[in-house]
Amino acid sequence: MKELFIKRFHYYKSLGDKSFEQLSEEQMFWQFNEESNSIAVIVKHIAGNMLSRWTHFLTEDGEKQNRNRDEEFINTFKTKQEVIDFWEKGWKCLFDALDLINDENLYTTIYIRGEGHPVIDAVFRQLAHYPYHIGQIVYIAKMITNADWETLSIPRNKSQEFNAEMKKKFEGDELNANSSPVCFENNPEVRDDYKQ
Questions:
Q1: d(Cα 59, Cα 153) in Å, to the nearest integer?
Q2: Quick check: 141 and 22 in contact, CB under 8 A?
Q3: Is the predicted pLDDT of residue 178 greater than 80, yes or no?
Q4: How many other CB atoms are there within 10 angstroms of residue 79's CB atom?
Q5: Is 94 exposed, middle or buried (0-12, 13-18, 19+ CB in 10 A)?
Q6: Per residue in 93-150, pLDDT tens?
Q7: Between 20 and 30 A from 169 (CA), which of 17, 28, 66, 186?
């Protein structure tokens, strides 16, 4: 189970990574309007959440006293590299925490804002939360780059070819009905893993 969690989180992290690669320094800080978040601010929130939720997650509440969630929505970064460095710091914290999960503590109760959750539920919460914001990052990046955007999933008007390729690849495979409903990246490692 832990390995599947790690693979899924790596997949969603890769969507952010591949989006950042396509953006200039200025584009990381672009906002549609004053009420909208830039990619830099979304990263600040995601990584801030990760550092709070996953630092000493088995023994401390996931909403750390030193976390200022409201501050996460105010940009303090000066460069694209600072944004990426904080992104990587958050993910390292998450992956280090996931490495601590085992069969003995998977259903142990941990706390977030005083509310008890089994470890597995806390993971599921973030497996919904982080991709939600990563989807925002991808959408903003795609808007900014417009025709220069290099797709991260099935290219437009290529669905039939992709479906035929996948059908051929898994022809005769009794488990092919279990291919991921959420991951459309043409990546055999991700799709094969989902079959477990």
A1: 39
A2: yes
A3: no
A4: 12
A5: buried
A6: 999 999 999 999 999 999 999 999 999 999 999 999 999 999 999 999 999 999 999 9
A7: 17
